[in-house]
Design brief:
Layout (H helix, E strand, L loop, with lengths): L18 H7 L1 H4 L4 H13 L4 H28 L8 H13 L3 H10 L2 H5 L24 H24 L4 H26 L19 E3 L25 E3 L30
Parallel strand pairs: 1-2
C-alpha cells in the first residue's frame, strides 16, 4: 500500500518557465532512462526477489524512484507555466486581435517549439524528449539477481549522465539544484546495487552454468596488427585476483566445415514412360 506524503524529498523550484527545456526534461519522465522506467524495473525485481535484504533494498529504491518521478513532474509543470499548451485558451480567445496587431510571431514560435507539450497542456506527458510514448520494452529485467543488478548499475549510470547533460543545458538556478539532487541520488543507487552484488558469493558468471573452461579465459586476437595485440591485458600468468587470458587466433583449434555432399540429380522420365507402381 502507498501513502502520498505531500512533502517532497527535495524542494522543487524553477525560476523561469521554459517550454523548450521541459521538452528535453521529458527524457527523465517517460524516457528509457527515466524515473518511471527505473521504478517499474526495481518493483518487478523486488517482488520476485527471495532474499529479504535485496527485496527491501529494491522496493525502497523503487519507491524513491516514484518520488523522483513526482519531482521531475513538478519541475515540468513549473517549466510549462505560460507555455503554448497552458495558454491555449488564452491564445484562442485573443488570437485574431493579436494577429491584427502584428503579433503573429508569437504564434509561429509556439507552433514550432511546443511539440508534445501542446498536447499535454500544462502537465507532463509519458514520452521521451522526442515524443516517443513510454513502453514496457524499456524495463529490462531477466529474473537473475546477478544479471539484473549489473543492469541496474548500468541504468543508474545512464540516468546520471542524462542528468549531467540536462544540467549543462539550463541556466535556471532552481532547476539546476533539483537536477543536481536527482543526479546525486543516481550515484547513491549505483553504490547500493554494487554493494548488493558484492554481497552475493560467486556472482560471476551469471546463472548456474559455468561454461566451457577450455575457452572461458581465451582472448581471441581479431586484430591484424601484431604491435597492438591485447595491450593492457594480462595474457600469461595472472596476478592474484586477476583474470589472465590465453592469447589465441580465432582459427586456432578450429576446422573448416566439411564439404557439402552433392545432392542427387533429379531426372525426368522419358516421354511415354509408365509410372512405376506404388
Amino acid at each position: 500500500m502507498f501513502l502520498h506524503n505531500q512533502k517532497m524529498m527535495f524542494t522543487v523550484r524553477v525560476d523561469q518557465p521554459n517550454a523548450q527545456f521541459a521538452k528535453m526534461l521529458l527524457e527523465q519522465f517517460g524516457g528509457p532512462n527515466g524515473e518511471l522506467a527505473a521504478a517499474l524495473r526495481y518493483f518487478g525485481q523486488g517482488w520476485a526477489e527471495p532474499d529479504g535484504k535485496r527485496r527491501d533494498m529494491l522496493l525502497d529504491i523503487a519507491t524513491e524512484e516514484l518520488s523522483h518521478l513526482e519531482m521531475v513532474g513538478q519541475t515540468l509543470v513549473q517549466l510549462l507555466k505560460s507555455s503554448p499548451g497552458a495558454e491555449v485558451d488564452e491564445i484562442e480567445s485573443g488570437y485574431l486581435g493579436q494577429l491584427l496587431d502584428g503579433k503573429h510571431e508569437k504564434f509561429i514560435e509556439a507552433s514550432l517549439n511546443s511539440g508534445q507539450n501542446l498536447l499535454g497542456g500544462a502537465g507532463p506527458r509519458l514520452t521521451d524528449s522526442m515524443g516517443n510514448p513510454f513502453t514496457a520494452n524499456w524495463v529490462d529485467t531477466i529474473g537473475e539477481p546477478t544479471a539484473d543488478l549489473r543492469s541496474d548499475i548500468a541504468a543508474e549510470a545512464r540516468a546520471k549522465l542524462v542528468y549531467e547533460r540536462l544540467i549543462k543545458y539550463t541556466n535556471d538556478a532552481g532547476c539546476r539544484e533539483t537536477l543536481g539532487f536527482l543526479m546525486t541520488r543516481e550515484i547513491a543507487h549505483q553504490k547500493m546495487f554494487e554493494a548488493a552484488l558484492d554481497a552475493i558469493m560467486q556472482n560471476f558468471p551469471p546463472g548456474r552454468m559455468a561454461g566451457d573452461a577450455k575457452i572461458a579465459h581465451v582472448y581471441f586476437d581479431d586484430s591484424e596488427s601484431p604491435a597492438q595485440q591485447c595491450e593492457g591485458f594480462e595474457l600469461a600468468t595472472p596476478a592474484p585476483g586477476g583474470w589472465g587470458f590465453d592469447l589465441r587466433k580465432p582459427a586456432d583449434g578450429g576446422a573448416q566445415p566439411p564439404p557439402l555432399k552433392p545432392r542427387p540429380k533429379l531426372q525426368s522420365r522419358k516421354n511415354g514412360a509408365a509410372k512405376s507402381p506404388g
